């Protein structure tokens, strides 16, 4: 039995030839492909991790009381979620939850998972691991009479497009899902990175009408607090659903390490370093956006999040090749879905020096 055979090709392997070309640039590669943070972990978070380093016993899957209340405080502040009974659960980064959610909710063959037309590939992987069918759709109308829809993923601000769904759109998804008994999982890991619009959480009463029924919000500290290496995320929402996830995850040993739980408390309570990081990304975004536009790229959406969704109105692999010749590596849009074929995703996660180098190279080629 080869489970991997049921999964899509691992896309990053396909980028290796372009990476080799970009790495040949005399001033080195500017890697804007994978959105991996490059700035330091905030000192207050490192100190909290170290202070909790003596952790000989098993941690709680549910999280310490301290991390549970830090999550509650944060979702009240950042998402407008002022529900006394909100379910919260720390996760080992958010990717494992995205990949495991359909299984942990008990989905299987015959069930349908709805995902956006271009999106983070792990939504599809999680569904395929259970044998569930995937439908890519932006508008629920386009789903037709499909039954057996058990889970709907939304991602606003979106990876890769940076699109933000307005509250009215989210509200429609919630109403539609509730009528059919489907769960809405809202991946909000870029929620705090709104540039031209203020993204709204599914946990906001303006979207959910004051009820958490059937709703899960997935959050990550990877980008907000540069904690990708710690693996720190959480899920919050419908207490019954979160309780079920806890029950399953306790059995499966899906536990966030104790020192990471302590680091999460420090990170969630620290808005200062999150604002500093946001400011860095805003500056990089400004430089890259201008350079790309002057070099003839059109930028679509990208009103929020960690990427510029850029197009030269040609096949995305031609754009990847063109930029690799300049020593700049980006991700082709088809990694995220067939309709991404004329775009590339340009990440803002490189040092100021590398972003400046990219801008210079684009200017010299324009
Ligand atoms: C949309 C989206 N969801 C989830 C993740 C996973 O993030 P992490 O596992 O670091 O929390 C990413 C990572 O890039 C992402 O882009």
UniProtKB/TrEMBL annotation:
Residues 29-362 form the Aminotransferase class I/classII large domain. The keyword Transferase applies. Its cofactor is pyridoxal 5'-phosphate. Belongs to the class-I pyridoxal-phosphate-dependent aminotransferase family. The keyword Manganese does not apply. Transmembrane segments: none annotated. It comes from the Bacteria. This is Aminotransferase. Gene3D superfamilies: Aspartate Aminotransferase, domain 1 (3.90.1150.10), Type I PLP-dependent aspartate aminotransferase-like (Major domain) (3.40.640.10). Its EC number is 2.6.1.-. The lineage of its organism: Bacteria, Bacillati, Actinomycetota, Actinomycetes, Micromonosporales. It comes from Asanoa ishikariensis. Keywords: Aminotransferase, Transferase. GO terms for molecular function: pyridoxal phosphate binding; transaminase activity.
